[in-house]
Design a protein that fits this description.
- The protein has 274 residues and is mainly alpha-helical.
- It has 2 domains: 120 residues, Leucine-rich Repeat Variant; 93 residues, Leucine-rich Repeat Variant (Alpha Horseshoe).
- The longest helix has 26 residues.
- The chain is elongated, with a radius of gyration of 21 Å.
- The C terminus is likely disordered.
- One of its GO terms (molecular function) is microtubule binding.
- This is Sperm-associated antigen 6-like.
- One of its GO terms (biological process) is cilium movement.
- One of its GO terms (cellular component) is microtubule cytoskeleton.
- It comes from Thrips palmi (Melon thrips).
Amino acid sequence: MAAKRASAALADYTLARQLFAQDCAKSAESKAGAKVLVAGGALPLLVDMLSSAPSWPERPEDAVGDKKETWLADGGGAQPGAVGKDLDAVRMETARLAAAALAHLAAYNVTAKHVAKPSVLSALVEATQLLEALTALWSVARHSAPLAELVATLDDDVMGAVVAAVLDHKEAVRHAAVLLLRDLCKRTLQLSQLAVDAGAGCALTQLLKDTPGLCRLHAAVALGYLAAHSPVLALAVIAAKVSQRLAHCDGEVPAQPFDQRRQPVTKSCVHFST
């Protein structure tokens, strides 16, 4: 009986974490709400939710080989609402909501400085939700050159991961990645060189071919930033055979600039490091 009560308590706690992350993501959409969350100490809790979640207690007698059933498989004494919830689904949704909340917090100058810390940014890089992580990193990088450099130089694999995400199979992920890459490239010659070394020229050129609309336009802008920093980088862009691809962008002007709209953070289950 005590084990069942403990199982129910952990189930309720895990679901409460998900509800907390959901409320934070909603509240952080406004500047006032974002300030309250930061002042109230929500940031470290959200960072913790990116990578960790409590595990359901398991009954040793239910173990068969490598497969074990949890208490929630048959209710296990959990309260209504918790029964049948899948642990992986709860963990993934909690991480997604936490990353979305951090992305909203990073969108405002007054709260971005709290998100722009190596520990927080590193947690985003390792997050399981690629779309939300890219959106949060972009929200930080777009504020200033120092913050862009902080994002791009967290470790040696960040720029390569961003370039790889530019060719992701999901269009929303490609869009978030190209926005981040664009705002990294426009800042300094060093960041543009890092992007070119990671293969950004070829990836952006491929994006011009495969992805229509705003995503294609932002890829063209990113290539322009790359080429503008130095003659060497301009030659690298030319070598990527970008000129014929730019013709596809002719006339594709959005009715409203993308950067002037708050973009909704949608679901993604792709790992940032893949």
